[in-house]
Design goal:
Layout: H1 18-48, H2 51-79, H3 93-121, H4 128-150, E1 157-158, E2 166-167, E3 174-175, E4 182-183, H5 187-216, H6 221-248, H7 255-265, E5 271-282, E6 285-294, H8 300-307, E7 313-322, H9 326-336
Parallel strand pairs: 6-7
Antiparallel strand pairs: 1-4, 2-3, 5-6
Helix pairs in contact: 1-2, 1-4, 2-3, 2-5, 3-5, 3-6, 4-5, 5-6
């Protein structure tokens, strides 16, 4: 058999979708907005001699660097989507970038906590009006960034294009089908969103603390708000790291889709699943290997058709095993004899 004769059974392992391309563009817009705000604050801080403006300007720069991870991850996944070195495509790059960003968020939360405790123990003079102006400007930039990233949504239902693939170990029959309507879990976009959301939260807490401090002289509120913000950002970072790490080590909770696969395959009394492996290969879908046992093996297309209606299965491999054990055959024959 020639290679071109196999083309009907071959398919791409690029499981990207248009939503990720749109998320990449939105990330670029947010990076541009953040860099513009950084330049404005640095210039204004230099001209006015304001340390608060200079400090927030450099903070915006670190924020842009963190968002750069998200942009790079999208570009890498898109450019290498068809690279055969990636067995199941580049879908996990999103989770890898999300995990890296979670570590940066955790480091930022730790810095916030240490700095806040330091200022609580050793208070420093606060220029309230200037600091409030900087916090208000930062809040406006971060709210705009959060709208750009969150308006499209980082966790929603996606209508994508997928492939199924089945291997029959009896006769090497193969095929593929199309699946749609998977659940999107883009950890890269979620990480970028949490970065800007964390900055927005910091600005809100700072405005509250500075306003009360300016009105009543409660300077201790500023470091206390910093500690509260650090705890909340740390919690976000832990949640994102846990979610993305589960995808990276193939340890996610697939109970629902596993139950659906079992129900579909075992719809007749003669077929049972002996082994089932499920793992996420893209933000919107899974791959699975199904090893089934039956007394009377049927055409491989039948088992693929049973799974065709399940959402989010982008790559499916089916292994069919015929049960030939004597005890099992005898029990089957006994059940077939009418009473």
């Amino acid at each position: 058999m020639r290679d071109h004769d196999l083309s009907p059974w071959r398919h791409s392992h690029d499981f990207g979708n248009p939503d990720q391309r749109q998320a990449e563009r939105r990330t670029h817009w947010v990076i541009g907005l953040t860099l513009a705000a950084m330049a404005l604050e640095l210039v204004a801080g230099w001209l006015t001699g304001s340390m608060a403006l200079l400090a927030d300007g450099w903070h915006m720069g670190s924020h842009a660097a963190a968002l750069g991870i998200a942009a790079y991850a999208y570009a890498f996944a898109r450019r290498r989507g068809g690279d055969p070195r990636f067995t199941f495509g580049t879908g996990k790059v999103s989770s890898l970038a999300g995990y890296s960003s979670a570590l940066l968020l955790a480091a930022g939360a730790l810095w916030m906590a240490v700095e806040s405790v330091s200022r609580l123990l050793d208070p420093v003079p606060i220029h309230y009006q200037e600091a409030m102006a900087v916090a208000a400007f930062g809040l406006a930039v971060n709210l705009a960034s959060a709208w750009l990233l969150g308006h499209h949504g980082y966790d929603h239902h996606d209508h994508g294009h997928g492939h199924g693939h089945a291997d029959d170990h009896r006769d090497d029959g193969q095929g593929h089908d199309h699946q749609t309507h998977g659940r999107l879990q883009d950890h890269n976009l979620k990480a970028a969103y949490l970065h800007v959301l964390a900055d927005a939260l910091t600005s809100v807490l700072a405005l509250v603390a500075l306003g009360l401090g300016f009105a009543y002289g409660w300077s201790f509120l500023d470091p206390l708000m910093g500690i509260a913000g650090a705890l909340l950002v740390g919690r976000w970072a832990f949640g994102l790291a846990r979610e993305s790490a589960q995808v990276l080590v193939d340890a996610g909770n697939h109970d629902k889709i596993a139950s659906e696969i079992r129900e579909a395959i075992e719809c007749d009394s003669d077929t049972r699943i002996a082994d089932l492996h499920i793992w996420r290969i893209a933000p919107a879908g899974h791959a699975c290997i199904v090893s089934l046992v039956t007394h009377q093996p049927k055409p491989i297309e039948l088992y693929r058709e049973r799974l065709a209606g399940l959402p989010g299965l982008l790559h499916v491999t089916v292994e069919v095993n015929q049960c030939r054990q004597a005890a099992c055959q005898a029990a089957r024959q006994a059940r077939s004899i009418p009473a």
